[in-house]
Design goal:
The protein is mainly alpha-helical. It has ten helices and three strands; from the N terminus they run H-H-H-H-H-H-H-H-E-E-E-H-H. The radius of gyration is 15 Å and the shape is globular.
């Protein structure tokens, strides 16, 4: 069963992202870096668990869970039209669309893999804290810093990083 309500909530979060928020990206450079690391770690763990390494880290993890459950195409179209993303941000668009589809899966991922954390929550938080990013030369380019992508095995083996709001704010205050 598709959870369109959850997908709509993700769309609401994406709708308020300031995609080219250079000031926000600068103010939140440390937290955005941490969120990139955590997104890469979580998505690598899911990709390994699902045998979905092709195209990682911006692949379609939701389809690897159940390719028949997707966010309503009108939601995806609303995101694409509203975001107006630069073509250089193709990875951002793919990852954001995957987050919509992931939400539509509802509790299915957690039921199948209860030990794994939501792979898209760090991504959504990253976007909310200063817009998009680009990918190039093996790095997630955040505008005011970059994070090496590395291999899925390396990322999956890394330690989890706390991404609660208090921790993220504390990181940015250190900058």
């Amino acid at each position: 069963m598709t959870d369109q309500g959850a997908a709509e909530r993700v769309l609401e979060r994406l709708a308020v992202v300031k995609w080219d928020d250079d000031d926000g990206a600068y103010r939140h450079q440390r937290s955005r870096s941490r969120l990139s690391y955590e997104f890469l770690r979580r998505s690598a763990q899911w990709a390994q668990a699902l045998g979905a390494l092709q195209g990682w880290p911006f692949n379609d993890l939701p389809a690897a869970i159940d390719q028949t459950v997707r966010a309503d195409s009108a939601l995806v179209d609303t995101f694409i039209a509203g975001a107006g993303l630069d073509p250089a941000w193709a990875s951002v668009q793919r990852a954001s669309e995957a987050a919509l589809h992931w939400a539509a899966l509802g509790e299915l991922p957690r039921q199948r893999f209860p030990e794994l954390d939501d792979p898209y929550e760090p991504l959504l938080l990253l976007l909310e804290r200063g817009g998009g990013f680009m990918v190039g030369n093996g790095f997630v380019e955040l505008g005011y810093g970059s994070v090496p992508i590395k291999s899925p095995a390396e990322r999956a083996a890394s330690q989890p990083l706390p991404i609660d709001e208090a921790m993220l704010n504390a990181l940015d205050e250190e900058s």
